[in-house]
Design a protein that fits this description.
alpha+beta; Archaeosine Trna-guanine Transglycosylase, Chain: A, domain 4; 2 domains; five-stranded mixed β-barrel; disordered C terminus; Lon N-terminal domain-containing protein; Lon_prtase_N; PUA-like_sf; Lon_prtase_N_sf
Length: about 210
């Protein structure tokens, strides 16, 4: 477990649309672009082995930035190399961060100065959602999965602790990029659960435009 003082002020960032990482969750990735292969090689040389996942913006913001301000850093915990030189890696979510400055030109991949302030709870124990109604949630989830033609191991979902369940669904469900960003920025597990429920209900109603999450 890391402490806030262990976290670096500058990290490599990996913009990947739709790829959501959350604290205490795990994200498998397939790395094949030369610049990101270099990023992995450089990351392995650092003590912290952190990579910042972040969503690209649909269009540059008023500040000219092409990335969302908030991302989540993961520690490189697993790596295997294929015969043709690609990497299969796993990132373990450590903490969300806020980008203060994008740094380009010194490496083939992007780096950023980041602030970890405001995300101290990410480094603590798993969150608890006191208002979580598992039977009602699983009933909604079953109807959502059926509408999306998805399947899962329901026994595992019934047994999973609430943070693992809600974060895994946030990462794996086919939500839109902006919706995944909203799930990332949720200030608490309860807020994330409420957002997931809203997104599934919207999908079940056919995604009416007036119900779209802003």
């Amino acid at each position: 477990m890391m402490r806030p003082t262990d976290l670096p002020a500058t990290i490599p960032v990996f913009p990947l649309p739709g790829a959501l990482l959350l604290p205490r969750a795990r994200l498998p990735l397939h790395i094949f672009e030369p610049r990101y292969l270099q990023m992995i090689d450089d990351c392995l040389k650092t003590e912290h082995r952190l990579i910042g996942m972040v969503q690209p913006r649909a269009q540059a913001g008023k500040d000219g930035r092409t990335l969302q301000t908030i991302g989540c850093a993961g520690r490189l915990t697993q790596l295997s190399e294929t015969e043709d030189g690609r990497y299969m890696i796993t990132l373990a979510g450590v903490s969300r961060y806020r980008i203060t400055r994008e740094i380009s030109g010194f490496t083939p991949y992007l780096k950023a100065d980041v602030s970890w302030d405001g995300f101290e709870r990410d480094l603590g124990k798993p969150e608890v959602d006191e208002g979580f109604d598992r039977p009602a949630f699983l009933d909604l989830l079953s109807r959502y999965f059926e509408s999306q033609h998805l399947s899962t191991d329901w026994d595992s979902l019934r047994d999973a602790d609430e943070e693992l369940l809600l974060n895994s669904l946030s990462m794996l469900c086919p939500f839109e990029q902006e919706e995944k960003q909203a799930l990332l920025e949720a200030p608490s597990l309860a807020t994330r659960r409420e957002t997931v429920v809203t997104l599934m209900e919207i999908a079940l109603r056919g995604g009416a435009g007036e119900d779209k999450l802003q």
